[in-house]
Automatic annotation (TrEMBL), chain A:
Keywords: ATP-binding, Cell membrane, Membrane, Nucleotide-binding, Repeat, Translocase, Transport. This is Monosaccharide ABC transporter ATP-binding protein, CUT2 family. Residues 1-234, 250-487 form the ABC transporter domain. Its main location: membrane. It holds the Pfam family ABC_tran. One of its GO terms (molecular function) is ATP binding. GO terms for cellular component: plasma membrane. It is found in: Cell membrane. It is a peripheral membrane protein.
From TrEMBL, chain B:
It comes from Actinacidiphila glaucinigra. Keywords: Cell inner membrane, Cell membrane, Membrane, Transmembrane, Transmembrane helix, Transport. PANTHER family: ABC TRANSPORTER PERMEASE PROTEIN YPHD-RELATED (PTHR32196:SF21), ABC TRANSPORTER PERMEASE PROTEIN YPHD-RELATED-RELATED (PTHR32196). GO terms for molecular function: transmembrane transporter activity. Pfam families: BPD_transp_2 (PF02653). It is a multi-pass membrane protein. It is found in: Cell membrane. This is Ribose transport system permease protein. The chain crosses the membrane at residues 21-42, 54-72, 79-97, 103-125, 132-151, 171-191, 222-244, 276-295, 301-320. InterPro entries: ABC_transp_permease.
Length: 506, 324
């Protein structure tokens, strides 16, 4: 690609980017969210067309106007959101639209056999007749790869394939990617995990604000890569300023929901950041959703400032001053096709209403103030949230709660899929909140983050609070020991897995 | 891109502004094209009398469509509006004539019938967790059935005082057109300025995000369908006053015209998008087309074909414009 340029309304997403890929190499595309990585690969897959510049394949200029064009050129893309049909079987998904046919009918036998061979190649043991809806995320990804293999792709683009995988699954993925590289496939690999670059990559192109700022070998040091990415060196990754803990704001006692969590008791004090650590599936998200009133619970109590909250009532929790930034930003946090102003005003909509009428001028003023405070990178308050980068989207979700003057803000995986620069901005926000006497309850699977930002760490394991560690005692080992402690039989494996995954954070 | 270049040309500011509005609004351009084409094809088309006539023909569907706009913006669908309109009109006529109630009370009862039908759909959807399509399909059947039961299958004369709604003010402005304009203004205000209106966009855009932001989604949905029922009742009364009687088969199939008007006006059936002005334009396009085809003496059978094609074309153009 030479001098590729793409303009979205109000934003230059890419400006004169050069990028080249050789057969048999892994070329890592690195950059903060909003730097233009997704835009770049969308032009290769035909989802976007460049406004300027050329795309060359084997020395000849090509125009990629749609997914079919990309397919013909042997370019396959695996997005973060998978393109699979849940109700259809694995084999049908692999050969969707290209099912082997006999007498005009789908030849299921041959299709299943071909699929089985491909699945064996990517190393997963799945019956090709299994519906895709029954597979976990890691296996879905392997199905996507099998689909790319079935297309005999010469170029494979992978957008943050490791974001959702455990370290064991990552190892498996790396083996497959290395195998593909040996077969001569050129691979574009996007990741936020810097240590994966040295482990897998050959070359790295760093994008910043829509320009390619450097092309370096994968052996470049992580510090150097971060400097290139954000254009400055980040001195402190976790800039936690610990404040004196005040009176208890939120008290949860004996919270239980059958089969999900049991006897969960904890409190959060003013000025505190409480980390909620644990393995995926330990019940952390379920507990905070129950605290927020989004889901019901069977027994126990939730009190804010000594006042008991009604069960399963989001509005009661909100009125008491609890806010939730959900795990699934796009699915639960944002109205993607509404404007920034609209999204920021969602929580305060009721408060800005007099006699049924919304004070829209007031809402605009507030949105303007908070978006400035959060340094949201946008074309204007009327930009649709869908077109923002992940980090800026997350700022909008947090912003709508800041406008409501939330006392206890619950953050569920607040920095997942967010670049280094935006992460630090979110941490600073957490500091501001606690400094002004509010409290934060933070779920995170990124162990260094939990340890770096929390004043106390609660560890959940199999639906229970397995233990509580003050910041100075909490280490990766002590947290993991608690996280897997109650089930030593199957825990050993998980410890190893999670340990590595935690440190993969940075 | 196009708008930028237009902005820079300062000499013809008014023309440029008009062009910009048209370029940004596919349905409006389609309406303008239709009006221009028909005024060339038929000398009678542009007369004041005929245009007001078009307004009257558009009024009932437009009022129904305004109610449907609320529902569609909130990512729902209301198939019952035609039946509810007929039911409300029949309740008015029956209670004023057969039951001998005072006319004002009959009107109140009629409007209450519309609201109650909407409430019932809303309750089925919010608490019965029925898909809107099914709940309002049931209400479509129930509404039409009750209409036939009450009227025993024959038209009931409308009270004279209400029938004036079908007349004109000052000898030229038809009351249905006035009601349509008032209903449209009310819709614009509700959608743009009120809590329930903003909640419609949030619910239609992402119901879970709306719920987790403290919007009481179930309650709002019930109100939204009740509003749709209210507008249906108004439309039913306007229709019956034009015909001077409540007819059991009145407004048959109008729910589809209403949905078509909303969609032609640029709303999305997946929710979160839609405007009162668009819906008005959509209803006008349908009425202009019917009127024009009548003036050109196109057979009623072919009219249906043309209208279907126009619906597809209007939405297609809008989709293409948005993509490009």
């Amino acid at each position: 690609m030479e001098g590729v340029r793409k303009v979205f309304p109000g934003v230059v997403a890419l400006d004169g980017v050069d990028f080249d890929l050789r057969g048999g190499e892994v070329h890592v595309l690195l950059g903060e969210n909003g730097a233009g990585k997704s835009t770049l690969i969308k032009m290769l897959s035909g989802a976007n067309r460049p406004d300027g510049g050329r795309i060359l394949v084997d020395g000849g200029e090509v125009r990629i106007h749609g997914a079919q064009d990309a397919e013909k050129l042997g370019i396959a893309t695996i997005y973060q959101e998978f393109n699979l049909v849940p109700a259809l079987s694995v084999a049908e998904n692999i050969f969707l639209g290209r099912q082997p046919r006999r007498f005009g009918l789908v030849n299921r036998k041959q299709m299943n056999a071909d699929a089985a061979a491909l699945l064996a190649r990517v190393g997963i043991d799945v019956d090709p007749r299994t519906p895709v809806s029954e597979l976990g995320i890691a296996r879905l990804q392997m199905v996507e790869i099998a689909k790319a293999l079935s297309l005999e792709a010469r170029v494979l683009i992978m957008d943050e394939p490791t974001a959702v995988l455990t370290s064991e699954e990552v190892d498996k993925l790396f083996r497959i990617v290395r195998q593909l590289r040996e077969d001569g496939v050129g691979i574009v690999f996007i990741t936020h995990h810097l240590e994966e670059i040295a482990a897998l990559g050959d070359r790295v192109t760093v994008l910043r604000d829509g320009r390619s700022v450097a092309q370096v070998p994968a052996s470049t040091t992580e510090d150097e890569l971060v400097r290139l990415m954000v254009g400055r060196s980040i001195e402190q990754q976790y800039p936690r300023e610990r404040a004196e803990a005040g009176a208890p704001l939120l008290r949860v006692e004996g919270l239980t929901r059958g089969g999900v969590f049991r006897d969960v008791t904890f409190e959060v004090r003013a000025g505190e950041v409480v980390g909620l650590a644990g393995l995926v599936g330990a019940g952390r998200t379920e507990v905070v959703r129950a605290v927020f009133g989004a889901d019901p619970y069977d027994s126990g109590t939730i009190e804010v400032l000594g006042k008991r909250l009604r069960r399963h009532d989001v509005n009661a929790a909100m009125d008491a001053g609890i806010g939730l930034v959900p795990e699934d930003r796009k699915g639960q946090g944002l109205v993607l096709d509404a404007t920034i102003q609209e999204n920021l005003g969602l929580v305060t909509l009721g408060r800005a209403t007099r006699a049924g009428f919304v004070d829209r001028a007031g809402q605009r003023k507030e949105a303007d103030r908070i978006s400035g405070q959060l340094k949201v990178r946008m074309a204007g308050l009327h930009q649709h949230v869908r077109t923002l980068s992940g980090g800026n989207q997350q700022k909008i979700v947090i912003g709508k709660w800041l406008l409501a003057d939330t006392k206890v803000l619950i953050l569920d995986e607040p920095t997942r899929g967010i670049d280094v620069g935006a992460k630090v901005e979110i941490y600073q926000l957490v500091n501001q909140l606690t400094a002004s006497g509010h409290a934060v309850l933070m779920i995170s699977s990124d162990l260094p983050e939990v340890l770096g930002m929390s004043d106390r760490v609660l560890v959940m394991s199999q639906g229970r609070i397995a233990g509580e560690l003050p910041a100075h005692e909490a280490t990766q080992d002590s947290v993991m020991a608690l996280a897997v402690g109650t089930a030593p039989a199957e825990g050993g494996n998980a410890t190893a897995t999670k340990d590595v995954e935690g440190s993969r954070g940075h | 891109m196009a708008t930028d270049t237009l902005k820079s040309s300062t000499d013809t500011g008014g023309v440029a502004a008009a062009r910009r509005v048209l370029l940004n609004n596919g349905a409006l351009s389609a309406l303008v094209v239709l009006l221009v084409a028909l005024s060339f094809l038929s000398g009678d088309f542009l007369s004041t009398q005929n245009l007001l006539n078009v307004g009257v023909q558009a009024a009932v569907v437009a009022i129904l469509a305004f109610g449907s706009t609320f529902v569609i913006v909130a990512a729902g669908i209301d198939l019952s509006v035609g039946s509810v309109a007929a039911l409300s009109a029949t309740v008015l006529a029956w209670s004023a004539s057969s039951a001998g109630l005072p006319v004002w009370l009959a009107v109140v009862l009629s409007v209450a019938t519309g609201v109650a039908s909407g409430l019932l759909s809303g309750l089925l959807i919010s608490f019965g967790k029925l898909p809107p399509f099914i709940a309002t399909l049931a209400m479509l059947s129930i509404g039409r059935g009750l209409t036939l039961v009450i009227s025993q299958g024959s038209p009931i004369a409308f009270p004279d005082s209400v029938s004036h709604l079908g007349d004109t003010i000052g000898g030229w402005l038809p009351v249905p057109v006035l009601v349509m304009i008032v209903a449209g203004a009310a819709t614009a205000i509700i959608l743009g300025r009120t809590y329930i209106g903003r909640a419609m966009y949030a619910i239609g855009g992402n119901e879970e995000a709306a719920r987790l932001s403290g919007i009481r989604v179930k309650r709002q949905k019930i109100i939204i369908y009740a509003l749709s029922g209210l507008f249906a009742a108004v439309a039913g009364i306007v229709l019956a006053s034009r015909l001077a009687s409540a007819q059991p088969q009145a407004a048959y199939g109008y729910e589809l015209d209403a949905i078509a008007a909303v969609v032609i006006g640029g709303a999305s059936l997946s929710g979160g998008v839609g405007k009162a002005s668009g819906t008005l334009i959509g209803a006008l396009i349908l009425a202009v087309l019917r009127n024009g085809l009548n003036l050109l003496s196109v057979s009623a059978f072919w009219q249906q074909v043309v209208i279907g094609a126009v619906i597809a074309l209007a939405v297609l153009l809008d989709t293409l414009r948005r993509r490009g």
